[in-house]
Amino acid sequence: MRNCLPAHRRSFAAEWQKDADVLEKRARRAKELRTEHFNRRAHPLPPFQVGNAVLIQHPISKCWSTPGVITEVGPNRDYLVKTAAGGVFRRNRRFLRRRVPVMPAAVVPLTVPATPAPAIPGQAVIPAVPGQAVIPAAPGQAVAPCPAPDPAPVDQGEEDPPPRRSARAPKPSSLYPPHTWSK
Q1: Are residues 57 and 37 in the same domain?
Q2: Are residues 62 and 30 in the same domain?
Q3: Is 105 among the domain residues?
Q4: The total number of structural domains that make up the chain
Q5: pLDDT tens series, the chain, 183 aa
Q6: DSSP assignment, residue 146?
Q7: Strand boundaries in 74-118, DSSP class E
Q8: How many CA atoms lie within 13 A of 156 on its CB side?
Q9: Cβ contacts of 91 within 8 Å, gap of 6 or more
Q10: What are the start and end residues of every segment in region (Disordered) (predicted)?
Q11: Strand, helix or coil at 32?
Q12: Beta bridge pairs of residue 54
């Protein structure tokens, strides 16, 4: 029988004490198994240094969208991060991700000479025409110009068609029958 009176566990009957010991051992073993199962995959995240480029996780959308730079390292896995907009945020290591700055690749423009180079004996050269590339031809082969790729379609001022609407007659509302309108 349980009640709210304080009592030492040794004052209970012997079989109750044995049952309590068995239950405590089971609970301890279950806790050890849970801890072992959790620790299989859990690992500490590597720390950041001052000057590391990071992304900050947005607290609502959970997107890694705000870039920043570590300015100060705190004692408990917390970091001060300065963003490009000038804001300074204190974030735990869990909400920071290393950002590898991507350098844009250098675009090498295709240069077409204004005047064709002198032809090598046995090869023909097509003169440079805007929108066409120069392709040397092998002897005895017909020369075909290579058309330039079409540029992206430009909006010609055409309007989009209006959205399609249903032609079905709406069902009359049962909340406001027509006979109640004229009272």
Answers
A1: no
A2: no
A3: no
A4: 2
A5: 566 778 776 777 788 888 888 999 999 999 999 999 999 988 889 999 999 999 999 999 999 989 999 999 999 999 999 999 999 999 999 999 999 877 766 665 656 555 555 555 555 555 555 555 444 545 555 555 555 555 555 556 678 788 888 899 988 777 776 665 555
A6: E
A7: 78-83, 88-92, 96-98
A8: 2
A9: 56, 78, 79, 81
A10: 139-183
A11: helix
A12: 68, 98
Q: What is the CATH number of the domain that holds 73?
A: 2.30.30
Compute the distance between CA of residue 172 and CA of residue 167 in angstroms, rounded to an integer: 15
- Alpha-carbon distance 98 to 48, whole Å? 8
pTM of the model: 0.42
* Vertex 148: Cα angle to 143 and 151 (nearest 5): 165
Amino acid letter, 172: P
Domain span at residue 58 reads 53-98
Residue 162 is encoded by which pair of tokens? Answer: 């209006």
Identify whether 81 is part of a domain. Answer: yes
Q: Do the Cβ atoms of 67 and 99 come closer than 8 Å?
A: yes
62, part of any domain: yes
